[in-house]
Amino acid sequence: MGAEDPRPNPLLDLRGVKKSFLSGGGIRRRTVVAVSGVSLSICPGETVGLVGESGSGKSTVGRLAVGLLRPDEGAVVFKGRDINAERGALDELRRRVSIVFQDPHSSLDPRMRIRRILEEPLRVQKVRDIAGKAAAALDRVGLPASGLNKFPHEFSGGQRQRIAIARALMLDPVLVICDEPVSALDASVQAQILNLLLDLRKHLGLAYLFISHDLGVVRHVCDRVAVMYRGEIVEEGPAEAVCTRPRHDYTRRLFDAIPGPCAQSGKTATEPAAKLREKHEKAVGSG
Ligand code: ADP
Ligand code: MG
Predict the structure, then answer these.
(1) Could you tell me which CATH class the domain 43-68+95-286 is placed in?
(2) Which long-range contacts (CB under 8 A, 24 or more apart) does 241-246 make?
(3) Does the beta carbon of 24 lie inside 6 Å of ligand 1?
(4) Sequence spans of domains, the chain
């Protein structure tokens, strides 16, 4: 798509994927085209942002990328192998690519203790030696091992999202799909969770597909940005370039609708993004 394509050895490569849903029943039954021919690649260690208004198809792309949905057309290629055509490729994707959803309330089973929630991916993949892994995972996201015997409702929203992130890391993924990972959280907690994601990226060398509508955050966190509009990617490029010099009308309107660093007229960063950047740079600089 862009001038720099083709990109060498992407981890994940979406090639012209399409996905429609049937919605409604009886006479109201109709086909909704959620994603209509999206191509997007993510390289090892790279963070790709996916932005666009609500309903533009971002979450559907995320679910296609992690193998939760099967494309109607096109291919999802993980490490060079088509996950729907080549034997074992879907299993490998399921082991090495995970997802963090927007709402930690609905993504954690309320009847399960945290230990079971965290061990579940290991059991599904028949990992034999699981002793100590759940405690280590909690520690990695800044929660004490005493949390293992608790239930999700005993935690705050931010803590629950930490648990969801811990679960996403259980199988040592190379890529994590983050679908609006902080949108459901209080503003005061958002920066903490974003910093956690940035620290994990740095220490574990993760790649992220970072779905968000907070353009300040996207600009700060992402290497590249793709802009979705009505099921299609209308613009894609380095985060800084897309944010400061959007080429597509829709991107410009999207950015202008939101005050902050990506707004054409706005020269200064929004508080949260600026603070976040400053804090993180300090942390990185001192460590
Ligand atoms: P976004 O994450 O950008 O808000 P989605 O990918 O969730 O967008 O949705 C894109 C479109 O597909 C919307 O019109 C949505 O209503 C529709 N859609 C998504 N999932 C389903 C589904 N399981 N059944 C029916 N329609 C769906
Ligand atoms: Mg969504």
Answers:
(1) alpha beta
(2) 243/215, 243/218, 243/219
(3) no
(4) 43-68+95-286
Q: Name the closest-CA residue to atom 10, ligand 1.
A: 57
pLDDT tens string, the chain, 287 residues long: the values are 444 556 778 999 999 999 999 988 888 899 999 999 999 999 999 999 999 999 999 999 999 999 999 999 999 999 999 999 999 999 999 999 999 999 988 889 999 999 999 999 999 999 999 999 999 999 999 999 999 999 999 999 999 999 999 999 999 999 999 999 999 999 889 999 999 999 999 999 999 999 998 888 898 899 999 999 999 999 999 999 998 888 888 888 887 766 554 444 333 334 444 444 455 545 444 33
Ligand 1 site, residue 270, Cβ cutoff 6 A: no
Predicted TM-score (pTM) of this structure: 0.88
Instruction: Give the burial string for 231-268 (b: 16+ CB within 10 Å, else e).
Output: bbbbbbbebeebbeebeeebbbebbeebebbbbeeeee
Q: Give me ligand 1 centre to Cα 178, in Å.
A: 17
All residues at 6 or more sequence positions from 253 whose CB lies less than 8 Å from its CB, including other chains: none
One DSSP character per residue, 95-121 reads HHEEEE-S-HHHHS-TTS-HHHHHHHH
SS3 label, residue 199: helix
Ligand 1 centroid, distance to 120 Cα (angstroms): 27
Separation of CA 55 and ligand 1 centre (Å): 6
Residues contacting residue 49 through CB under 8 Å, at least 6 positions apart: 210, 211, 212, 218, 221, 222, 224, 225, 226, 239
In sequence order, what DSSP letters do the residues of 32-74 get, joined into one string?
Answer: EEEEEEEEEEE-TT-EEEEE--TTSSHHHHHHHHTTSS--SEE
